[in-house]
Amino acid sequence: MTKADAPNDDGILSCGGIDEYEELKTQLHDKRQLVNKTLQYILDSQSAANKDMKEVLRYVIEAPGKRIRSSLVLFICELVSGRTSRNCHMAAAAVEIVHTYSLVHDDLPAMDNDDFRRGRPTCHKAFDEASAILAGDALLTMAFEVLAKEVDEPVLAVRLIRELAEAAGPAGMVAGQMADMKAEKNKGTIQMLEYIHTNKTAKLFRCAAAMGAVCGDAVKSYFNSLCEYGLKLGLGFQIADDILDVSASSEQLGKTAGKDTKGEKCTYPSVVGIKKARELAEQLAIDAVQLLGPFGLRADILRQLAMSLVHRKM
Predict the structure, then answer these.
(1) How far apart are CA 87 and CA 212, in angstroms?
(2) What is the rounded radius of gyration, in angstroms, for the C-alpha atoms of the chain?
(3) Domain-by-domain residue ranges, the chain?
(4) Alpha-carbon gap, residue 200 to 185, rounded angstroms
(5) pLDDT digits (tens, 9 = 90+) for 98-107
(6) Which CATH class is domain 20-311?
(7) pLDDT for 214-235, tens place per residue?
(8) Which strand (E) or helix (H) includes residue 120?
């Protein structure tokens, strides 16, 4: 696979030629550009960082990603406050940095042992395993540095740091990754799958929604609804990802297809079958959409996002 095989930036919306998501596609493009610009600013600000490490960090951060989680921060903030702010931009970048760290470590030989990510060699293949471990360490730390230094309201910074730490830590993403590894080559259950996917993936989506709501100063009832929306969005996204692993090509995914099956991982298709997995993903999208009722037409983009993520082809 070459860089030319990297998934199209808008591949998340490749839903069989349907263009009902045209507005969402445009807005995601704009959000992605904003996130990329913020990430570039953050990288450029690391003037005291080790030269070799900066090269590794640029490689993984500048890889072509869809920026769904970081865009969600921006979408939610806009929904509740009518606009985004510099603080919100930094929160979105911090979420993206943590997500990137998780991919770098997830691809390591001791974890999923993958050779490709986002259409290019994984970090440990492009550099070496030690550099990839250190890059993940640097990214995770940098995300909290960004929130502590760049968010200009101390109370807001602390709230954002707490949300991100809880989602990424031992009761969140790390818990999901540990359970995912323990479940390999074991007969899975729905309960086991839900635990893995909720922690490994959905909690970071919930975190993105929560951080956007916090930046937009959402009232408690709105905050709770949006957090639940993010959780269902993330779980549906991961089920769709499980399905794509067995139904899409490596070129479409930008990573090695069929890895879950080969590694005997606990996935929804392996436990309940593809048909049932699709039904579960669809229902989660519907449930997520229903949570947006209090926001009326202003939340149409988020409704489109929920449906497009579970119907995507890559």
Answers:
(1) 10
(2) 18
(3) 20-311
(4) 18
(5) 999 999 999 9
(6) mainly alpha
(7) 999 999 999 999 999 999 999 9
(8) strand 120-121
